[in-house]
Amino acid sequence: ESAEKGGYEHFMLKEIHEQPKAVQDTIGAYVHEGAIDFSETGLSDEIFAGLKRVYIVACGSAYHVGIAGRYVMESLAGIPVEVDLASEFRYRDPILEPDSLVVVISQSGETADSLAALRLAKEKGHPVLGVVNVVGSSIARESDYILYTYAGPEISVATTKAYSTQLIAMYLLAVQAAKIKGKIDDERYAGLLAEMGTLPEKIQKTLDDKERIQWFASKYANAKDIFFIGRGIDYAISMEGSLKMKEISYIHSEAYAAGELKHGTISLVEDGILVVGVLTQSALFEKTLSNMVEVKSRGAYLMGLTTYGNYNIEDTADFSVYVPKTDEYFTTSLAIVPLQLMGYYVSVAKGLDVDKPRNLAKSVTVE
Ligand code: G6P
């Protein structure tokens, strides 16, 4: 097993470091000579041209990919997107409109609820696109269209590299839909693809800063509660950051839409509690910052996660983490990396079984 870990202490750390390659491989599978080529998936230009609505269905981290994907697809391609937890979708008798596509995201392709959601959509006569990592899995076999992610085998229960490749799948779908629907011109299309191509090296740059995160994680390893706050895409990032933290470190953590804090959660903020503010979206920066000021005045200790250049975060945050700038639609791919590392290092500091957290399974094939 130690050989399989390639010199890393845990599979999770190895897989975190494999993200530049996994992202590169997934982009490389579908972007050829400066254009998206979906021929391998079965998706045609006609499908995108006629697409009126997208329903994304998934569980766990794949659901968080769906939330991030919704912001990108709605804003870039102008297509309304609904995102559902598969376990909810399958029992709520969903109304699926014509000319819609159901997108089921799953690393394993075997998650029971996601598979049941797929079958329900098909029963209702709706085409399903599977975004799947494991070749030949049930969801891959039963989907009408299949967009494989190229993360390679993922061993650690807490997903990292598969999540990152699923994000790329969402970006590619959004950019392609935007182009075919005439929402972006050729220049913007080329610019987005070029920017996507820089993500592997920018993820690598983020990984190179890991010692600072390790230091901070060891300081907060005994925290009882952690809150993650953000708006828009930053809320989607917060959800995944919070899940990474709780699943492997056993620290209670929650993600909140920053604007919702004042409707209840702020009553939980007390002296010394750690609040992580995610601020990668320039239009929402000041809004989330003001929420951070609110929790700070109630005694919270603040970590701010933003992009290089936003150094005024240091006037408010007690500890700041920066990721490289990219197109704001793609920031999830970079900002998630320090949060994965933070969950990992807290778990290690507590001496927990990082790769096999208690009560959790890599692939949940029962309801
Ligand atoms: C489990 C895993 C998660 C994963 C979820 C959905 O809970 O621990 O990492 O996000 O299942 O799995 P899937 O294989 O459908 O992506």
Plain-language structure description:
The protein is α/β, with parallel strands linked by helices. It has 13 helices and 12 strands. The longest helix has 22 residues, at 186-207. It starts with 10 loop residues before the first helix and ends in an 18-residue tail after the last helix. 6-O-phosphono-alpha-D-glucopyranose binds at residues 59-62, 106-108, 111, 114, 157-159, 360, 362-364.
In N-to-C order, the SSE pattern is HHEEHEHEHEHEHEHHHEHEEHEEH
Ligand species: 6-O-phosphono-alpha-D-glucopyranose
Tell me the distance between the termini: 30 Å
Low-confidence stretches: none
The largest sheet has its strands arranged as: 4-3-5-6-7
Q: What structural keywords apply?
A:
repeat, glutamine amidotransferase, globular, 367 residues, binds 6-O-phosphono-alpha-D-glucopyranose, carbohydrate derivative binding, glutamine-fructose-6-phosphate transaminase (isomerizing) activity, aminotransferase, 44% helix, alpha/beta
